[in-house]
């Protein structure tokens, strides 16, 4: 609270967490489940951005692609290759699902970097739902495709028989921790990066440290652009890894 | 890739550290703590997220991906087609070259044949002309010989005539009587060997 007191004295105001507050889009009332909120606005901004890139950007259907079409093709190629390389050819059936996840997260992260924007992926509720849906889908696929053989995932046959039960316990725990780490990794990165930028921006009010603060904000911003892509990539690649475990559970 | 991931991990670590300090400010201003942990907004977020994801999935799976996939396979097809067409053209060029070579060889052979035929024809004509000339020459020679013989024959007869007449005149001049048969006999005897 020492910084808080100092902030009061110098007229500084730090509100690094304010940007994450969920507010109704119209009026000032309570946030019901159906209330259009800033979350709604930015979720549909993501949908529109994806639509603009993947649908409007490719409307030419050109053999020699335009700029936007080559970006869309690059995204398609990257995710398609990722699914094919990691989950295998039979994983390509789930390519639209993985592509949707990737486009959603990458646009959520990048749109969240706009000044005054709301970052939907900085919320545990959002990333938690995404991670849980991946977890449940993958588990369902695992049991449907392999039946009881899916449990081979937890029974490490390459290990000596004596330590297999121990490994099985560890494997089961790590399996159920997956959605937690999967969601918190993304949300944590987004929260932290945005909060740090806000804190540095708050320091810019002090003339003496303003240049340093502005340079720091610029640096952090550049860094966050990198993080925005990497986290989308990591989330997608982990989805592919989980999908691979579900399709080919034996070690 | 690995180094990129490692970087991402360190980024997470850095962020978590700074997060600890930033959480402190948040708590003082909203009193409810992190907005992310405000359970009253979860229903709203999850509802709209599900709506947005369903729309997004529909857009991506039903419109975007089939279209991009079609464009990519079209391009692949066009490239394969072009390469095949190029291969075909190359083959055709080779065929054309072979045909040209063959035509050239044929033309040479034909030219050789024509030259040989012409030569043979000319030879034949030449032979015919030579034979004709030979025949002419021999015919003329034969004629000339005949005429020479005639001239020689007539000269012989004329000489005999003159000799007889002269002999008969001489005998008459000397006062003898002319016995024509004896004169002829004498002249013939004298001329034997002289005009042969």
TrEMBL record, chain A:
UniProt keyword annotations, A-Z: ATP synthesis, Cell membrane, CF(0), Hydrogen ion transport, Ion transport, Membrane, Transmembrane, Transmembrane helix, Transport
CDD domains named in the record: ATP-synt_Fo_a_6
Membrane topology, from the record: Multi-pass membrane protein
Top-rank taxon: Bacteria
Keyword Ribosomal protein annotated: no
One GO MF term attached to the UniProt entry: proton-transporting ATP synthase activity, rotational mechanism
PROSITE patterns with a match to the protein in the record: ATPASE_A
GO cellular component: plasma membrane; proton-transporting ATP synthase complex
The keyword Aminoacyl-tRNA synthetase is annotated on this UniProt entry: no
Location within or outside the cell: Cell membrane; Membrane
Transmembrane regions: 39-57, 94-118, 124-144, 195-219, 225-243
Matches recorded under Pfam families: ATP-synt_A
InterPro entries per the UniProt record, alphabetical: ATP_synth_F0_asu, ATP_synth_F0_asu_AS, ATP_synth_F0_asu_bact/mt, F0_ATP_A_sf
Function: Key component of the proton channel; it plays a direct role in the translocation of protons across the membrane.
Family, similarity comment: Belongs to the ATPase A chain family.
NCBIfam families hit by this protein: ATP_synt_6_or_A, PRK05815.2-4
Protein name (record): ATP synthase subunit a
Source organism of this protein record: Paracoccus sediminis
Name of the gene encoding the protein in the UniProt record: atpB
Automatic annotation (TrEMBL), chain B:
Gene Ontology terms, MF aspect: proton-transporting ATP synthase activity, rotational mechanism; proton-transporting ATPase activity, rotational mechanism
NCBIfam families found in the cross-reference section: PRK13454.1
Subcellular localization: Cell membrane; Endomembrane system
Organism the protein comes from: Paracoccus sediminis
Regions that span the bilayer: 46-65
Keywords: ATP synthesis, Cell membrane, CF(0), Hydrogen ion transport, Ion transport, Membrane, Transmembrane, Transmembrane helix, Transport
A GO-annotated cellular component: endomembrane system
Family of this protein: Belongs to the ATPase B chain family.
Assembly with partners or alone: F-type ATPases have 2 components, F(1) - the catalytic core - and F(0) - the membrane proton channel. F(1) has five subunits: alpha(3), beta(3), gamma(1), delta(1), epsilon(1). F(0) has three main subunits: a(1), b(2) and c(10-14). The alpha and beta chains form an alternating ring which encloses part of the gamma chain. F(1) is attached to F(0) by a central stalk formed by the gamma and epsilon chains, while a peripheral stalk is formed by the delta and b chains.
First-listed, main subcellular location of the protein, grouped into a coarse class: membrane
CDD domains named among the record's database cross-references: ATP-synt_Fo_b
Listed name of the protein: ATP synthase subunit b
Membrane topology listed for this record: Single-pass membrane protein
Known role: F(1)F(0) ATP synthase produces ATP from ADP in the presence of a proton or sodium gradient. F-type ATPases consist of two structural domains, F(1) containing the extramembraneous catalytic core and F(0) containing the membrane proton channel, linked together by a central stalk and a peripheral stalk. During catalysis, ATP synthesis in the catalytic domain of F(1) is coupled via a rotary mechanism of the central stalk subunits to proton translocation. Component of the F(0) channel, it forms part of the peripheral stalk, linking F(1) to F(0). The b'-subunit is a diverged and duplicated form of b found in plants and photosynthetic bacteria.
InterPro entries registered for this protein in UniProt: ATP_synth_b/b'su_bac/chlpt (IPR002146), ATP_synthase_B_chain (IPR050059)
Coiled-coil stretches: none
